Amino acid sequence: MRAEPRIVCLGGGTGLSTVLRGLKLAGAHPTAIVTLTDDGGSSGRLRRDLGMPPPGDVRNCLVALADDESVLAEVFQHRFDRGDLEGHSLGNLVLAALTEVAGSFEAAVALSSHVLAISGSVLPATREKAVLVAEMEDGRVVAGETAVASERRAVRRLRLQPERPQPHPESVEALRDADLVVLGPGSLFTSTIPPLLVPGLGDALRASTARRVYVANLLQEPSETIGYDAATHLERLERHVGRGVVDTVLVPTVRRVDAPGLIPVDFERQPLVDSGVEVVVARITDGHHHDPLRLGRALIAQARRPRPDGRA
User: Fold this and answer.
1) Distance between CA 139 and CA 60 in Å, rounded?
2) How close are the terminal C-alpha atoms of the chain, in Å?
3) How far apart are CA 15 and CA 10, in angstroms?
4) Hey, which CATH number is domain 1-35+165-312, 3.40.50.10680, 3.30.530.80, 3.40.50.150, 1.20.140.150?
5) Where are the alpha helices (DSSP H) in the chain?
6) Which pTM was predicted?
7) Model pLDDT for residues 64-118, shown as the tens digit of each residue
């Protein structure tokens, strides 16, 4: 294995940002593969008005990997609260402007990465405009990430529209070369699963010889995963991507996190073991949140272990 393991993280939202920030603080230079199905808030407005990919999750990843002392990174997160710009973050607007000036969203991300001097890289799951579509347990079909996230009924199956968008080639390459692939934490149906619905990325994950770690969510989400324990999260992930795509599930040392007014996820070990995965227990939380640095160190420890196929 190389002196510094190659770590690839997939997803979106605050969960992915937490993982990236923790890995950066622990000295790693991870690659983030970001879902681009967000259609709400500032990202949704820019997607509709300018025809560009939604920039919000990418912006959060860039800031998470930026120098902690960077004033520019802090400014990137500034959100306007009045006037025509109300609801927009400055970082989203900068990415929109750079997309027009540089000619592509990829070029805008590359330029922002350079300006922010990020520790790692940020890649889109696909270059195509993809819409998240969910078939609910009652048979209804719901389109759009915001609509899926606000549904109160269980999701039976997710897909993208178009159903077979081409993966970003650098994202596929990153998965092929990885020593560790990290899935989660994050909203199961609107952050963790969506990038893996891109066929080439799902294929690359299934074929990967890297250790594939799923970081268990700490809390059930009212609009997505009420009643789900950690094993149910894993089963839904495998239902969409394939059996055996996770080697290790990382859970906190406490069986149920302290979350007043919220519903914690049950981390019962045996159902996970019965699913065929290794369960690793680590001190990775602070109250009812993942602690970035502890999580980053725990993931680097997993990256330095031998790969499941025995390769160094």
Assistant:
1) 34
2) 5
3) 10
4) 3.40.50.10680
5) 13-25, 41-50, 56-65, 71-76, 90-102, 105-116, 145-150, 169-177, 199-207, 230-241, 269-274, 292-303
6) 0.95
7) 999 876 788 889 999 999 999 999 999 999 999 999 999 999 999 999 999 999 9
